[in-house]
Specification:
- By secondary structure, the chain is α/β, with parallel strands linked by helices.
- It folds into two domains: 75 residues, no CATH class; 189 residues, no CATH class.
- Helix 2 crosses helix 4 and helix 3 packs across helix 11.
- The termini are far apart.
Length: 291
């Protein structure tokens, strides 16, 4: 990763779109099986966006390619951001409907943010950390130890506290919330295999139940956040907060929260289906295509 940063820094930033295009196209054609998974997920997102199970084949394939294109852009930006000054990172972001969230964070009130693998969530996390009084985030421990170490170092440089999966994550995050911190979770993939089954994009999928558990146990509201890649800019958009219910068993309250989280994530994903970089296979309902 460090070598990739050095090489990329020798490439003029004006050529970044060329790099995205080449890298995205190469990845798109290189693995047929993975492309089928991405295409299936894009079909789900497009069907939810249009309200129709009939998706034009050309539209579906374009959206599938765009997922690779924007994922390539994500990686270039993640590598680039390490050479940027904190103020440049903050100034590249256009926050939308952020007033309540920012006020809450400036008052150091416990808050949970949930995101999907849409756009550049890393840049969104950096902006929140630098502009909104820090953030504690959960990161997956990758098989590649060197890459895990690089991500940890890069995120901590931006003031982000990182908790790796595999330990007592819930206890650590509850402690952070009790200290008035922000906890950010990317939850459209269930890496644990023990997620809450919810309705999402017209099918039943497991989502990580962490947000529901933390919200119910701490009382902290959940703010769904969409991070979108715009022309030369980043957009961080906030959606209405989810407040945990007070009645019912803990399991019932967690389930209720997670169903609201799923609805919010669906809105975030369908805003920009081609920027949804989720390459995990979901169970697909019957759909039709036409030329």
């Amino acid at each position: 990763m460090r070598t990739a940063v050095v090489v990329l820094n020798r490439v003029p930033r004006v050529l970044d779109p060329v790099v995205w295009t080449i890298a995205g196209a190469t990845s798109y054609v290189s693995n047929r099986q993975r492309r089928a998974i991405v295409r299936g997920n894009q079909r789900l997102a497009l069907s939810a966006r249009t309200g129709s199970q009939v998706i034009a084949r050309s539209r579906l394939e374009l959206s599938t390619y765009r997922a690779y294109y924007f994922y390539a852009r994500y990686w270039v930006e993640v590598l680039r951001v390490q050479s940027l000054a904190p103020e440049d990172i903050v100034l590249a972001v256009d926050p939308v409907r952020a007033e309540d969230f920012v006020a809450r964070r400036m008052a150091s009130q416990p808050t949970i943010a949930v995101l999907a693998h849409v756009g550049n969530w890393e840049w969104g996390g950096a902006w929140v950390s630098l502009a909104c009084n820090g953030v504690t985030a959960v990161a997956e421990a990758l098989d590649d130890a060197e890459m895990t170490d690089w991500f940890l170092t890069a995120r901590r440089r931006l003031g982000m506290e990182i908790v790796l999966t595999g330990g007592d994550v819930v206890r650590t995050l509850l402690k952070a919330l009790r200290q008035g911190k922000l906890v950010a979770l990317v939850v459209d993939r269930d890496v644990s295999g023990t997620g809450e089954m919810v309705d999402f994009l017209g099918t039943r999928v497991p989502l990580s139940s962490g947000p529901g558990v933390l919200s119910v146990m701490s009382g902290a509201p959940i703010y769904p956040v969409g991070t979108y890649q715009r022309r030369g800019r980043q957009e961080v958009r906030f959606y209405p907060p989810i407040v945990p219910p007070q009645e019912g068993t803990r399991a019932e309250r967690v389930s209720a929260v997670m169903h609201q989280v799923a609805k919010a994530l669906e809105v975030i994903v369908t805003e920009e289906p081609g920027q949804w970089h989720n390459f995990q296979k979901y169970e697909l309902p019957a759909t039709r295509e036409f030329d």
